[in-house]
Amino acid sequence: MEKKDTKQIILDEALDLFAVNGYDGVAVADIANAVGIKASSLYKHYKGKQDIFDCILEKTAERYNEMAGRLGIDGNISERDAAQYSGMSTETLVETGTALFMYFLHDDYARKFRRMLTIEQYKNEAASKLYTEQYMDSPIVYQSSIFKVFIEQGKMKNVDAKVAAVHFYSPMFLMLCLCDSCPEHEPSALEFIRQHITQFSKLYMEGKIL
Amino acid sequence: MEKKDTKQIILDEALDLFAVNGYDGVAVADIANAVGIKASSLYKHYKGKQDIFDCILEKTAERYNEMAGRLGIDGNISERDAAQYSGMSTETLVETGTALFMYFLHDDYARKFRRMLTIEQYKNEAASKLYTEQYMDSPIVYQSSIFKVFIEQGKMKNVDAKVAAVHFYSPMFLMLCLCDSCPEHEPSALEFIRQHITQFSKLYMEGKIL
DNA sequence: GTCTATAAGAAGATAGAC
DNA sequence: GTCTATCTTCTTATAGAC
CA 20 to 30 Å from A129, out of A74, A96, B3, B159? Predict the structure, then answer.
């Protein structure tokens, strides 16, 4: 009752520090200090610093796979999802797009985790895999699936769906990277994403049935 | 004659290590070892580890500003450049685009420096500024200037030039990030960039005078 | 589960011989 | 300019009292 869950708090505070300073830039004492305990106490919960890092990676990967499974991001879009998107207009595309962007941008945990992966990707193979999977492969595969449905329905010009998916997603990725580096650019980035999606719709759906 | 320039070699080897392990992940002894001297000898060339890092940042920023100045990346495109691009066809756009991408991707020094900035951006303000300037602001401003000329000349649809610039550049940025993380994706990324530019041309220049 | 104390080693930097 | 030797501090991790 007194303490929520020290083991979880350690992971949260560690991620908070890793997301800025990287694994090597954080001392076990720093994590312990953030939690409000001494470094030695921390070893009652985890084997060591590497164990903490690995647990963050493992837990978040689990959480992600659950979500991805529900959304059908893994591979082809499901029949159910296709039906769901069949009624989508340009306006809802803009709304859905910005909402997804907002989530990626403002969800505190998602942001920290993305930053940590960004820092660690070149020296840690697991981090590299998660980074490319979550921020590149999956969004593109998912968006491609949606656009394939759009094209079949004649809502969208008959172009390569994957290229269209990258045209839709990569500006969001770039703005995410920008805002992660300079949070003061968030308002203009958000406004820009709206312009982007609007122009995207014009280019890809002009003259099409909406 | 015997040694090219120890002071420069130190910077090169340090960058090589920083680009993978980050500043905190590299010991002064590691750098010295890569150079082929002892750690203590290194202090005859630089004040310390931070000095080495700062010198890499400073030297590369200088080199970049020189290049940017010549290309007129800073702000508006020059009259001379506008004239240069006025004769550009879709084919040359594809070629110029892929060439620029190839340079960013395969230039050894550019790649290492980009990786180092990627790692250090969240805890180092100077790194953050250089990162956003070199890989976001400048390419977009530069590409916008070119597209403004295209639009004036009626070569391109009358859309927002900045959004078009991001549509052109952001897929390259995403593929750069991908290849920096997983170099094995280079061949497919290169092929994809060709598809991207082709589709971009169709969307933005279809029905226009070429 | 948290603390103090402490071991054992790594890391940044300096002094001084050659 | 490079070396060996050394200093000091930081860092991970363990032992054992409470």
Answer: A96
In chain A, domain spans: 1-70, 72-210
Å from the A92 CA to the D1 C1'? 68
3-state secondary structure B11-70: HHHHHHHHHHHCCCCCCHHHHHHHHCCCHHHHCCCCCCHHHHHHHHHHHHHHHHHHHHHH
CA of B41: nucleotide with nearest C1': D2
The pLDDT tens digits for A157-197 are 999 999 999 999 999 999 999 999 999 999 999 999 999 99
Q: How far apart are CA B21 and CA B15, in angstroms?
A: 10
One-letter amino acid for residue B32 of the chain: A
Q: Fold match between A1-70 and A72-210?
A: no
Fold of A1-70: Arc Repressor Mutant, subunit A (1.10.10)
CA distance A15 to A48: 15
Residue in chain B closest to A134 (alpha carbons) equals B178
Q: Which nucleotides of C are covered by protein (CB under 7 A)?
A: 1-6, 10-16
Q: What is the CATH number of domain B72-210?
A: 1.10.357
